């Protein structure tokens, strides 16, 4: 297909006005806002922020905007006209223009003016569409005397797999525009416009995951500087409203960088993750060459030394990573691996021989990596990312994909300039670990334990769970074949089932059985221990999990420390204990199913035992509420973001409260009654559904373990599980479980209830008494402040919210089990 000739698409535009009066201008800023998808709400906000910024009024700045709105013809459509945008005659837009718009800032009128609008629906993912806009805008900028050129692309980002995602229903297109197509469009526009530069001064992506080796591998030839985030971005995007006048494109990029990290974007707290970096594109290839040389040598090492191979696997597991291009709702370990974090982790676990070739190559790669950054940083509450990721999926992801999709496709050109890196991945994915440990291992740190396995296949050699005042430590020496290990905590509420098994089994749908294959989700590998536990446990049991715990490898040892917290999700009507996945820097992710406003459900839709697969068949979308413990005010967190997986593409993006709809928590369990095994409880015990909207009053309540178990009459311990995997052995799983009593947790269960403490046993369904919490949550306003408050004291707001929310949940459990 021939592209980038004399415009074929511009003929579909109604040209509204002649270009504005030519004036000398220095920086030409072009924004390609592809909002024909679920990000329109946020991109509209960005457009309005830019219009009201100080920078746009700078006489030396010429601004052009391409805007493609979403027009599904459904209730999700935004029908209002763009705010603070004017027609050529100076009147505000009276209605939403359904086609694509070319807009420019009129310095004389001080207005954002629609200069052209398409009369037909355009595909924002078509490189011809991008070319036409750039050629149109740059022609004007050249005429105005612009000397520097900056392009910002705003929409979904997929790193290696490109940018965009125009979802117009006429095309049913749900794929991103490939990076190489974008490169071709930009290069062609630069070449087609007389007087345009050979390269952009700055190329920026206000999109997820675009600060990636696998993306910049394409873009380094068309720009001097490259601005993007290596992680999923919060939906609010960049802080356009804080943009200040500047003299150069790089200064504008630095302004965007700093404000994105520093501003809360209208919220009381920072959304997470927020990471941003500016890269000198000329210094990227020296880094990529150094990275490629390093992994050429590491390919040799992992193929010949079991010690290095296992350290490499554990380093990958312990390295900071974000949800990436190949990740969907079944991802266990994210694939967008932070490069600087890998350097640090591998050095720590390996203790590289200082006289080795690996040390020389590692030092060179680290130096080149640091040198290419002009600026990089992270927002408050974001894990310590170092600026750029590379796609390194876990082995189970490779097993699902054709290798060519991940690393060999010429059309994607994932890392075409790093053939040794590709060869390393092929070796790492396809070859089993060598049997022998080299006598001259490049890793001076040995991961061979002095302990011997007590049985064939044992991976956990001396597992131990110990409770202290500061936390619960789960640790073990590991067999050298151990590649991965996970730790989960929960409560054993088997005692509540006594005499009620028949009732409970009849309550749960017959479809929730041990033989049913449920949809994959990020936690699924962690529930394989249910099958393992069945081999050692007798009788029926019920364990309700509260979350997982990040751990770290230390030589042949592994240790993870749980902070002894459980999490409840509730509002004035309902509450559920929820599962919280552990992240660095206090980040927690709470699994939920999201239902759009056009597809509402009722409690009858999700009876006890509903699986993720069944909820998805009702139109539910798997996702997470993300919260940060740093935002807790007396153990109550009221700030969160909802991220959901696109049902078709698997891309992860924020779903704003303005979208409306409902969320229902996804609990995880091991409930065994005869041949019935239940591992997923969508909606929890009460078929709980929370409204998702701007006026939702949902809170996440943090409850310490001792307080939590004291609410259950007869419960005096928590359960901590460790599950280890050997990826080279079929069914290579080892499992250990321990109970930690309240005294071992560093306290004891509460005594008789007082007026400020709910009854220790499950409350009856009768009305509350003086000893029970009130019928509604506490109404006192919590204290405010930028930092986390101290633990709640008896009678404090946080304490009363905690106990009231706990009582609502326990009541729901009681009504189901009794």
From TrEMBL:
<dbReference type="Pfam" id="PF03415">
    <property type="entry name" value="Peptidase_C11"/>
</dbReference>
<protein>
    <recommendedName>
        <fullName>Clostripain</fullName>
    </recommendedName>
</protein>
<feature type="signal peptide">
    <location>
        <begin position="1"/>
        <end position="25"/>
    </location>
</feature>
<feature type="compositionally biased region" description="Low complexity">
    <location>
        <begin position="746"/>
        <end position="759"/>
    </location>
</feature>
<dbReference type="InterPro" id="IPR005077">
    <property type="entry name" value="Peptidase_C11"/>
</dbReference>
<keyword id="KW-0732">Signal</keyword>
<feature type="region of interest" description="Disordered">
    <location>
        <begin position="744"/>
        <end position="794"/>
    </location>
</feature>
């Amino acid at each position: 297909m021939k592209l980038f000739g004399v415009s074929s698409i511009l003929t579909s535009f109604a040209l509204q006005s002649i270009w504005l009066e030519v004036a000398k201008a220095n920086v030409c800023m072009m924004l390609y806002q592809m909002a024909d998808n679920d990000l329109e709400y946020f991109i509209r906000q960005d457009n309005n922020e830019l219009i009201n910024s100080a920078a746009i009024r700078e006489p030396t700045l010429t601004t052009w905007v391409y805007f493609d709105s979403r027009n599904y013809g459904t209730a999700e459509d935004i029908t209002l006209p763009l705010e603070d945008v004017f027609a050529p005659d100076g009147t505000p837009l009276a209605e939403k223009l359904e086609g694509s718009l070319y807009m420019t800032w009129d310095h004389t009128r001080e207005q954002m003016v629609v200069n052209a609008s398409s009369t037909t629906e355009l595909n924002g993912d078509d490189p011809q569409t991008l070319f036409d806009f750039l050629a149109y805008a740059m022609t004007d900028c050249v005429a105005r005397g612009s000397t520097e050129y900056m392009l910002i692309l705003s929409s979904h980002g997929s790193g290696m797999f490109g940018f965009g995602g125009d979802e117009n229903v006429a095309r049913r297109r749900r794929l991103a525009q490939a990076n190489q197509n974008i490169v071709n469009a930009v290069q062609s526009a630069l070449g087609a416009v007389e007087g345009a530069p050979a390269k952009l001064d700055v190329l920026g992506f206000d999109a997820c995951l675009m600060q990636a080796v696998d993306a910049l591998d394409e873009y380094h030839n068309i720009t001097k500087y490259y601005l993007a985030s290596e992680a999923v971005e919060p939906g609010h995007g960049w802080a356009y409203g804080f943009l200040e006048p500047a003299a150069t494109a790089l200064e504008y990029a630095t302004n965007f960088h700093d404000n994105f990290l520093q501003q809360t974007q209208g919220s009381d707290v920072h959304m997470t993750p927020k990471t941003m970096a500016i890269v000198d594109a000329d210094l990227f290839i020296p880094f990529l060459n150094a990275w490629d040389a390093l992994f050429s040598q590491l390919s040799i090492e992992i193929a010949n030394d079991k010690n290095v191979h296992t350290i490499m696997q554990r380093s990958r597991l312990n390295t900071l990573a974000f949800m990436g291009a190949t990740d969907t709702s079944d991802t266990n370990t994210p694939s967008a691996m932070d490069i600087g974090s890998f350097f640090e982790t591998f050095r720590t676990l390996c203790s590289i021989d200082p006289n080795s070739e690996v040390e020389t190559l590692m030092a060179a790669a680290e130096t080149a990596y640091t040198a290419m950054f002009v600026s990089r940083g992270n927002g408050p509450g974001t894990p310590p990312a170092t600026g750029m990721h590379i796609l390194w999926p876990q082995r189970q992801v490779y097993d699902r994909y054709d290798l060519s999709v991940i690393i060999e496709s010429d059309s994607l050109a994932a890392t075409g300039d790093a053939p040794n890196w590709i060869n390393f991945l092929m070796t790492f994915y396809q070859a089993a670990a060598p049997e022998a440990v080299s006598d001259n291992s490049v890793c001076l740190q040995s991961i061979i334990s002095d302990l011997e396995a007590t049985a064939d296949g044992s991976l956990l050699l001396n597992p131990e769970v110990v409770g202290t005042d500061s936390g619960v430590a789960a640790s073990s020496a590991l067999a050298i074949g151990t590649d991965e290990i996970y730790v989960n905590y929960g409560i054993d509420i088997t005692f509540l089932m006594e005499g009620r098994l028949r009732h409970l089994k009849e309550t749960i749908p017959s479809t929730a059985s041990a033989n049913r294959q449920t949809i994959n989700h990020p936690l699924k590998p962690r529930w394989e221990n249910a099958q393992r536990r069945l081999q050692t446990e007798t009788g029926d049991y019920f364990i309700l999990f509260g979350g997982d715990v990040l751990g770290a490898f230390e030589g042949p040892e592994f240790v993870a420390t749980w902070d002894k917290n459980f999490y409840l999700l509730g509002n004035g009507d309902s509450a559920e204990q929820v599962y919280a996945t552990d992240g660095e820097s206090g980040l927690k992710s709470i699994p939920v199913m999201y239902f759009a406003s056009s597809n509402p459900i009722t409690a009858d839709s999700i009876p006890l035992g509903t699986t993720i697969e069944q909820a998805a068949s009702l139109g539910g979308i798997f996702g997470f509420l993300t919260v940060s413990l740093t935002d807790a005010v007396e153990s109550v967190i009221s700030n969160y973001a909802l991220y959901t997986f696109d049902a078709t593409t698997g891309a992860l993006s924020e779903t704003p409260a303005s979208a409306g709809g409902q969320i229902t928590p996804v609990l995880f369990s091991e409930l065994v009654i005869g041949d019935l095994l239940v591992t997923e409880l969508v909606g929890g015990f009460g078929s709980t559904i929370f409204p998702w909207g701007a006026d939702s009053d949902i809170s996440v309540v943090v409850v310490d373990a001792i307080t939590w178990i004291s609410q259950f009459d007869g419960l005096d311990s928590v359960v901590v599980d460790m599950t280890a995997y050997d990826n080279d052995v079929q069914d290579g799983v080892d499992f250990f479980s321990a109970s930690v009593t309240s005294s071992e947790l560093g306290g004891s269960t509460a005594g008789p209830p007082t007026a400020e403490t709910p009854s220790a046993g499950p409350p009856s369904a009768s009305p509350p008494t003086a000893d029970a919490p009130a019928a509604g949550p506490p109404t006192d306003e919590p204290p405010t402040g930028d930092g986390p408050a101290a633990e709640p004291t008896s009678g404090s707001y946080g304490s009363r919210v905690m106990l009231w929310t706990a009582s609502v949940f326990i009541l729901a459990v009681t009504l189901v089990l009794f």
